[in-house]
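[step 3/7] fold_predict: job queued, chain A
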Amino acid sequence: MTDVKLHYDDISIVPETLTDIESRKECNPYIDGMLPIFASPMGSVIDDTNWRNFLDNRINVVIPRTIRLEERLNILWYTCGTESQHKPFVAFSLAEAEKYILNDDQINDPEYIEDGDQLRVCIDLANGHMRKLLNLIQDIKKKFGDNVLVMSGNIANPKAYRVYNDVGCDYVRVSIGTGSACLTASNTGVYYPPFSLLMEINEIRKECDGKCKVIADGGIKGFRDIQKALIYADYVMIGGLFNKCIESSGITTYGKSWFKIGRFKIRNYIVDLFRVGKPIRPIQYYDAMRLVKLGLLEINKMFYGMSTKYAQIETQSNQNLKTSEGLIKTQKVEYTLKQWVDNEESYLRSAMSYTNSFTLYDYKESQWVRINGITHNK
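[step 4/7] structure written:
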């Protein structure tokens, strides 16, 4: 373990001296048929119309709290009974999880949950270091066992991993203040460099034979950061990059209404074909992205952090608004979800081939990481 605290930009992956892999197609970047990626439970990424599209593209999903509670509960129970193993987690607040999960005795009733079925619950808090949260997770797991899979967090102290593992949490989200729409680090000073955080959690995980899976959540600026995070994390959670997909739920606007040629401005009537402020219909995705690539259309998506007052209004309309620790911004659409997934799959396979990793398990076991001129063996 190094005393230098590291960001993703501070490290690089060192190839294996000799590799037995002759083609990246030999590498398997999937866990149970899904990429090791979660779409973040953010209102400008996931909504009740597009979450199935993410699952169909082999991306794990957490249904956000911006969706009405009744709809979230319907999704939770409906997907529990489906035969597909690709099911979403559903996000709840601390109070919602206590009321609708812990106090719901039908979860243990075989009439409602058959053997092998599971409710997938994400207790969605910014501060995962609350004792009350850990007590709730422990109570849920003690009462329902494997009938309920629990994801929670976020944490930014490596020692907190051991506590999450001890109370039986199944997945922990790691990192605070590193999201591209988060202002927690800059406004509160609470922060832990994300790669060092993952590295140190990995050491603790080995010591306690930890079963709780680690999700790297935040600080991911591009494809290479995903491959770096997966050295120590089981999954990576993506928000801002998915907002740039044409399918994301961010409010849509369009640019380039006029072109300037010399002294003349020419109206771009293509923009008029799309309704400003409305999502683009799936039937329009292909044509819209062709126009984007040709420079004839600019599509923008609103992206906002879940602690912004905008998000607070969506999730808790009857409560007093808190000081915002997030920001709202606009991002240009750059790709379809399928294009992004195809690229990530290819890049991950390539990283695995360089490191002689046939599986993701191999990828985590045989890495060398170069840190500021020092080579660190896992």
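[step 5/7] annotate
The chain is about 30% helix and 20% strand.
The CA atoms of residues 141 and 370 lie 39 Å apart.
exit 0
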